[in-house]
Amino acid sequence: MLIRILFLAVIIYLTYRLIKIFVFGLPPKSGPNQIKGKPKNRPLDLSKMNVEDAQFEEIEEKTKDRQ
Question: How far, CA to CA in Å, does 5 sit from each of 2, 29, 35, 63, 65?
């Protein structure tokens, strides 16, 4: 008896899923947050030929408060 009820529940569930697919169509495979298109910024080329070290200069401060 229990097996018949389980079998009937599975049949009803599968029928429900088939009717839902026919009425509403297949669900979309991609999520709503999918980003489409090309990126605007190109990736940076950080090879050693294109990178320079920064050069800094010491600035002498002439203030009366610090002395």
Answer: 5, 33, 46, 91, 90
Query: In whole angstroms, how far apart are CA 39 and each of 2, 12, 26, 42, 45?
Result: 58, 47, 30, 7, 16
Confidence of residue 28 (pLDDT cuts 50, 70, 90): low
pTM: 0.40
Rounded to 5°, the CA angle 54-55-60 comes to 135
More confident residue, 33 or 5: 5
Query: What are the backbone angles phi and psi of residue 3, rounded to the nearest 5°?
Result: -65, -40
Instruction: Give the DSSP H/E element, type plus range, for residue 18.
Output: helix 2-24
